[in-house]
Specification:
With 126 residues, this protein is of the alpha+beta class. Helices cover 20% and strands 36% of the residues. It has a single domain, classed as 2-Layer Sandwich (TATA-Binding Protein).
Length: 126
């Protein structure tokens, strides 16, 4: 999905969502290492003068998810929506590639400004 207002990113093991991670360990990392704010059972936020993002963690079969309801014991998708007016693309990539690296997953931009879909941002592909 492309928007002139938002970036849309996913952090996942692969296109099939085949690997899960323990939710409690991920939450601890996101709160303590990345200093993300907890917003409900499945949500996190980044809100400062340089960037704004809403993050949802969930377990999925096909990429669909909900920010509502109880958080599962393990998750296989981290969905990120970031504001283009309150953050540079490189800042979002820098922050969320840390999560992808920690999990040994990929950071994917759903669609970039040039219309390319499922752009892998981390690990860097040369």
């Amino acid at each position: 999905m492309w928007s002139h207002l938002y970036y849309y990113f996913e952090i996942k093991a692969d296109a099939e969502y085949s690997k899960c991670v323990n939710t409690l360990e991920l939450v601890a990392f996101m709160e303590s290492e990345l200093l993300l704010e907890r917003k409900g059972e499945k949500g996190f936020g980044v809100s400062d003068t340089n960037m704004w993002a809403e993050i949802v963690i969930d377990k999925t079969i096909d990429g669909s998810f909900s920010g509502e309801g109880p958080c599962p014991e393990s998750i296989n998708l981290i969905s990120v929506v970031g504001s283009k007016s309150r953050g540079k693309r490189t800042d979002y990539i820098k922050l969320f590639s840390r999560v992808a690296e920690k999990l040994d997953w990929v950071l994917v931009e759903e669609e970039d400004d040039d219309g390319n879909e499922d752009v892998i941002l981390w690990p860097l592909v040369i």
